[in-house]
Amino acid sequence: MLVTKQKILRRFWYALMPMSVLEDGPRPFTLLGEPLVLWKGADGQPVALEDRCCHRTAKLSKGSIEDGRIVCAYHGWTFDASGACVRIPQAPDKPVPKACRVRAYACQEKYGYVWVALDDPLQPIPDFPEDGAPGYRRIFQFYQTWKTSPLRFMENAFDSAHFSYVHRANFGIYEQPRPSIYEIKEDAWGFEAHTVVPVKNPPAGHRVSGSTQPFIERHLYNRWYMPSVRRFGCIYADTGKHHIIYNCATPIDDSTIALAQWLYRNDDESDCSTEELIAWDAPIVEEDREILEATDFDACIDTARRAEQHMESDKPGLLMRRMMLELLRQHGEDEVYNERRA
Ligand code: FES
Ligand SMILES: [Fe+2]
Fold it and tell me: Which end of the chain is more exposed for a tag (fewer CB within 10 A), N or C?
């Protein structure tokens, strides 16, 4: 599935960048192949416009912010949050023509991030119930660019068969490659997936898990939010530590994602510091990135065209494909894909 070719994907919210990035002025971001400019408006809320001035096409992201509005770097035309041009400095005595505007997109701040939907969103921004809930702290762990697609990221996120191989250097048990099987509950916009995974607990993970045992169990209460957000709801059974991760695999273009990772913990800094938590998850994320960047980015969703025999642990990935294909077809689309495919 080539994400920039599937119109329906424009109707979901995507996490683009931390709000803090906008403190220094406007920033460009390409979402589903569409160049955007983002900035922080006068009310503190983020704004997203087409990154192309309607005068002589200069990128507005090269401009500056004055009174919460964006000023084009080329001739100073100024645009408000609705995309309307409100000032043409060279013609101060004439009214600005109504046609002088650029496209504006739905844009909100949530969980400390800027979220954008290119077209009328089908669903609200996914709910992260731990955010702001008593007893939880939020840690921004990672904000990275990966050469892969959202579906590759999402299928990997529910693939318990890769732990023993990809993550053998930390929690994966190489000697025990039989994967844990998820119990899956499907609903209209994704699914819940529960399983129990035995893992290694090396010294670097002791304060993360709260245990010094060499092997421990993770109870995973995961969720897929169609199309590109996932919850990794990990609870260490013996200690009750919550290590809840949310990832957004935001499609930049057909072969690139912006990966955002938030962590929620039900403990505090003296139990396990932010630095320790980042140091624990960083190599795991890097291992996933390395293997995913070694796959074809274009993951097909029409499984009728696939010849392989699937393992039981491939079921969440297959369900995602079926649900994505149904969504496309409900909206009159078919899958657009590369010639050379998985
Ligand atoms: S190109 Fe933007 S003001 Fe001229
Ligand atoms: Fe992984």
Answer: C
Which residue out of 51, 52, 53 has the highest number of ligand 1 atoms within 8 Å of its CB and is therefore the one to mutate? Answer: 53
Predicted TM-score (pTM) of the model is 0.95
CATH of the domain at 108: 2.102.10.10
Asked whether 85 lines ligand 1 (CB < 6 A), one says: no
Residues 112 and 141 occupy one common structural domain: no
Q: Is 75 in the pocket of ligand 1 (CB under 6 A)?
A: yes
Regarding whether 104 and 149 lie in a shared domain, the answer is no
Report how many domains make up the chain.
2
Taking the C-alpha atoms of residue 251 and residue 216, their distance in angstroms, rounded to an integer, is: 35
SS3 130: coil
Q: Which residues hold their Cβ within 5 A of ligand 2, which is an ion? A: 288
* In a shared domain, residues 227 and 305: yes
Judgement on whether residues 109 and 168 belong to the same structural domain of the protein: no
- pLDDT tens sequence across 48-70: 999 999 999 999 999 999 999 99
Helix, coil or strand: residue 203:
helix
Q: What is the spatial distance between Cα 53 and Cα 62, in angstroms, rounded to a whole number? A: 10
Instruction: Examine the domain organization and report whether 103 and 154 are in the same domain.
Output: no
Domain that holds residue 62: 3-117
- Looking at ligand 1, which atom is closest to the CA of residue 53? 2
Same domain, yes or no: 84 and 141: no
What pLDDT digit, counting tens, does each position of 205-230 carry?
999 999 999 999 999 999 999 999 99
Burial code (b: 16+ CB inside 10 Å, e: under 16) for 288-302 equals bbebbeeeebbbbbb
- Whether 11 lines ligand 1, by a CB cut-off of 6 Å, is no
Alpha-carbon distance values, 197 to 96, 222, 234, 292, 306 (Å): 63, 12, 10, 22, 29
Q: Identify the residue whose tokens are 């245990």.
A: 211
